[in-house]
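Researcher: I'm comparing several assemblies side by side, and this is the next one on my list. It has 1015 residues spread over three chains. Same procedure as the others: predict the full complex and return the structure.
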Amino acid sequence: MTKAIRPIVLGVLGLLWLAPVYLLIVNAAKLPADYSSAEVWKPAFGGALLDNMRDAWERADLSVTVLSTAIYSLTGPLIGVLIGAGVGFAIVALRLRHGFWWFVFVFGGTVFPIQMILMPLFVGYADAGLYDTRLGLILVYSVISVPFSAFVMRNFFSGIAHHVFEAAVMDGATTWRIFWRIYLPMSGSALVAIFILQATFIWNDLLLGLTLSQSDDVRPIMPALTSLQSTYGGSAMPVVLAGGLLVSIPTVLLFLATQRIFSRGLALGQF
Amino acid sequence: MKTSTKFAIASVAAGALLLTACGDDSDDDGDNTSGGGGAGGGEESVESSGTLSFYTDKAAWEPQFDRVSEVSEDEIGFDLDFTGYSDSDAYTAFIKQSFRTDEKPTLFTWHTGDKLGELVDEGLVAPTSEIWSEAISNGDIPADLEQYYTYDGEQYCVPLHVSYWVMYYNTHVFDEHGLQPPQTWDDLINIADTLAAEGVPAFYQTNILFSFVWFQTLLAGSDPDLYEALATGEASYTDPGVVAAMEQWREMMEAGYFSDPGAADDPQVLLNNGDVAMLNFGTFFTGALNELGMVSGEDYDLFVIPNVDPSLEQTSLIVESGPLCAAEEADDRAEALNYFDWWVTADAQSAWADARGDVSFNPGAEVNDERLADLGEQAGSDDVRLIERYFEATPPSVLTVALDEFGAFVTNPGDPMPHLEAIQAEAEAHWANQ
Amino acid sequence: MTATFAQQEAPAGTGRGSGSGGPRPYRWSAWGFTAPGVLIVAVLLYLPFLWTTFLSFTRYNGLGSPEWAGLDNYQAMFSDPALLTSLRNTALWVAGTIIVPVGFGLLIAVLTYNMRFGAWFRLPFLIPYAISGVAVGVIWSFILQSGGALSQALDTVGVPGADSRWLLDAPLNTFVMILAAAWQASGVNALLFVIGLQSIPKEPVEAARVDGASGWRLFRSILWPMLRPLTTVVVGLSIVASLKTFDVVWVMTQGGPGRSSETLAITMYRETFVDSRYGLGGAVSVFLTVVTLTASIAYLRRQLSERKAL
């Protein structure tokens, strides 16, 4: 009996959760002149969706930003995850002295309101020649990923018994090798989770990209997309929604593609 | 270890850069203030073609700027490297901070009033007095506009755009209810009554950002002198005239003339769908309506809002003018000023008005939309008194409080006094500091 | 396999304790692993924040040089009655975030745990996080506007409340925005809980099952204790994120109407960016940071550190 209840409960909740997504899709598929807030639930299918997407794509000139955004979303979290995992490893496995406080120091990076570090960061970047460079953005996106990654990995590693480490040392492995060959492979699902969450965050970042870059081939995609919406008249609502939907496709695919990893039995259990 | 050492080195290097950079900052600041922002620019030779960096908070206008940029490249050899912000506040902060760096904005859009005054005080924007005197004498810029660009007798920046605040209406809704554009305020109220009886809100209003619009219309239409005195701190927000305007506003809300102030829909959509009959907005709004496929004169039309007080001699028309500025210390300051020379000409303005579908400040510019062309002429006549928009006319700190109070007032219409007292308290604090 | 795992949480840096005692053979290596993280965070996050902290003791409008103002900004901040509303709303956000998205995320994780096609059932809750902020803001604005999608739906189903002014009346506006934020955050929390559940070895679970434990008892006695490392992560992150709540509120109400839905982060943004009072905005952000740090340290210390006095 319980077996049947679970999928039903989850299915109903899931549908409820997807209701806003439904609204997003049907309203993105309406002709700009047909859109009305009194009829948001009314279904609409057909060619208008593609037209609206094309319109958003061209208006916001998204094509030039896709490549650089993809670079940031891949490199930033990758570097961030590794550095963060390194911190976690040092604290848990290598028992860094005053580990808790070093952890708090790194974690403190997420505590600062991002809006308040934007302007000093911009000035520093401009003076250091990092403003409007891809390197600069990769750097900042890596840093942004470090505290979260350190937090998750630190706690994840704490679930691995210390004698795994001791046994490896007995076999003559270096700490670098233990990190790289034992701890990281054991943490597959955690690493992937951090990676996709941070990649999505970076893909969707508006503020950092807006403030630290200017030229078309450096600026990420969100600042370009939001130009569709502005006080001084932007695009019609369905076009804005279609644009939002369009740029969400890569991140949704990323989640879809990595689901297998979060299926039961693939993670630590296999070690 | 390899990778991690590399990162360590990279981050140490970055840190060192940033540290030295911070050191430089203070020096820069010193230069800025002690140098008094004198005649920067220098003696370098002026280029005859190239690209000028251009920043704006009107990100949605990118296609239009691109078109003008193409025209300017053809005509004077300079095009614009466009960077758009959609959030005006973040933009303001960014531009201000950029003056401390080497990334000074060659050309940027701004706001008149105290916001431009701040930059002028610090010597950050290039004076444009020569361009102005020439443009006024050959008729490129109407002399009326000069006051908004003048600080201590000198002019700064040139107009980017001019918009008049008028009433847009949905012609189909008017036809359906047998309505004609009003000649007097009473006509307008009659129209609103007719519509209210049919359950159609006559006017659009919102509690975010544009919450000041009806305050501005009602006060400027009943006592324009009082309206202007508020902006300069000579009158109080608790003045009986201001209270009366607020009371009238409340009565109109209670009579059901207004749309829901919390509506999240774009106003152009509401007008297009006939969810509101009329929209009190700047002429830059034409572009948004055309975007929806609405045709001027067929689907929508506009009229100048009649004065609330019919005994006033001139019709109060709210005007908004946004400046295009050049950084005093930008490397290509001279080129930027040359660009201004071109920008104010009728040719450039025809291209701009055409791209934007808006009026131009230059009376010689061709405006394709007939209604807007008429409006432009009307604005220049003696029957009209141009009044600066509340947004620019009011000191920023007072404005922030006022926008919140008006927003709260339209959300829960009630006694206006507490709201006015809150604004007045901020106004007094502001003027006491001056 | 199970042998490689500690049965109970084995918090870091435990065992040898902090400070005195025990040899630390990997001191240099530990430093090598920690340094990159510490350095880049220090340079790119701490350094800029130091500048903000400095500004909080000055008067500065973004132009020219900051003027020293001592504690004036802090005094102004604490004497502003709007700060109280802001604090109250922020407290609501913290409580709401710990209850709704954390609780819901846990529920989703446990329900999909060890279930056929579990990952696919989980997907609907993850998709909201993957959708770009621009679209999410627009969608929720028209769900929550008066007479909007939510009201229309309630009206159709015949549930009372259809005429509520969701975003206009306080504190209702804060409550519904917490739910909107929960829509995005629950899936992420579920994912983190799933990682925790996956790292739990099968044997003790099976053993408990053989002993007849199931449902609530199995969860209470086996899963919940073993989930602790990741629960700490989820709750810790939620505390920080909720104290800094900004985006949702800024998109939907900008803290209004009449400042009624303002959070501390909105107050900070408003003072700094809208009003160009960098000093006052800096003071609010320092205050916010101190609150956030204190709350996180208090929480994490209890969760992460060994029981013995630190």
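Model: For your comparison table: Confidence is low (pLDDT under 50) at residues 1-43 of chain B.
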